[in-house]
Amino acid sequence: MKKTILLTGGLGYIGSHTCVVLEQAGFRTVLLDNLSNSSLSSLDGIERILGYRPVFYDADIRDRGAMASLLKSNDFAGVIHFAGLKAVGESVESPFEYYNNNIQGSFVFFEEMERTGLRNIVFSSSATVYAADNTLPLTEASKLGTTNSYGTSKLTLEFVLRDLVSAKAWNAIALRYFNPIGAHASGYIGERPKGVPNNLLPYILDVAIGKRERVGVYGDDYDTVDGTGVRDYIDVNDLAEAHLAAIQKLLASPTTPLPVFSPSPPAPLLSEEMGAKSSFQAINIGTGQGTSVLEMIENVRLASGKSIPYAILARRPGDLGSVYADPSLARELLGWEVKRSVREAVGSSWKFVHDNR
Ligand code: NAD
Ligand code: UD1
Known about the structure:
Shape: globular
Bound molecules: nicotinamide-adenine-dinucleotide, uridine-diphosphate-N-acetylglucosamine
CATH topology of the domain at 4-183 and 235-286: Rossmann fold
Structural class: alpha/beta
Helix content: 25-40%
């Protein structure tokens, strides 16, 4: 019989791609989303790709009654917990909203998971949990530290899950995503930012389709290949496959959580300064390669055939010159590696935006 996986935030950008990958790998998925940053068009897109419509619950993870009945009335083998707010700038202005939705919401959800004995979870974490003063590439042992409420919500939830692993025998993997881009090759699902995009590629794509005039490049005086900011852009289809590998790893030995993740040097979740170590497993999901802002603009120009006007602006406060992952732990523990290039990812993003103008 097919194992069923619950995807919170399952209609979002990463959740929808993960749904497709899991279904195609033989899992049954159930999607839960409050549609605060997504819409039923994602479900339509998933249906067009799969040829059937996965079960969807329009519900909020903070709704204890709804979570209790959803968890009781299904036999879930595991959860992938995507649901959350993710805009860094907004989180700085609205910490209560971020702590309420991301932390309080997850507390409610985790308590109801525990109550029904569901203890296998893959959590959407982020490279934003790393402190600014690390050497590159970032490994899971790099120093942790956050500068905004969004990042603090992610790091807090990693700590909470680590405690649930040790106190309640949960089996948890936190995937620390670098910069997800790209779309499904069909063009039926992809990223649909509401309003003015915060992230680089959606902004460049808006310029390519003529929705915005020019890209503002935040600084050209960093110590990088061309002076502009360098990031580790990961194809969302590769990222979705990392979730498949993580859930398979969890389900392979759900009753013995700690030994599963201890063969390699344990990745400390707490910084040395905080004086503690844990075997809770956080795993970087990136390519290990950096791409600059100007290289991304060039990639979009090549994919779209459109010229992309840009202007050099001041640095964005809080930005780092370069950020990229050491993804070797993902290879070692999950057997996962990237298959798609940044250029392919930009191509699929362009197709999605172009087809869905
Ligand atoms: P997204 O906004 O597209 O998806 C998140 C989904 O969660 C949305 O569909 C939203 O409606 C839903 N949601 C939010 N709060 C909810 C709640 N209280 N109850 C139920 N549903 C709720 O974002 P995404 O890019 O797919 O990101 C998924 C996860 O990965 C998020 O937790 C995000 O913080 C994390 N992440 C994203 C990135 C990125 O750049 N996209 C990078 C690192 C980590
Ligand atoms: C942002 C978030 C980070 C989150 C990540 C992935 C901030 C401060 N950080 O980081 O927490 O994990 O997205 O969702 O927002 N750039 C421009 N012009 C633009 C937009 C971006 O030049 O209009 C540059 C940036 O300076 C950076 C690069 O493009 O060098 C990528 O920016 P962005 O997509 O916002 O990602 P991050 O900075 O990695």
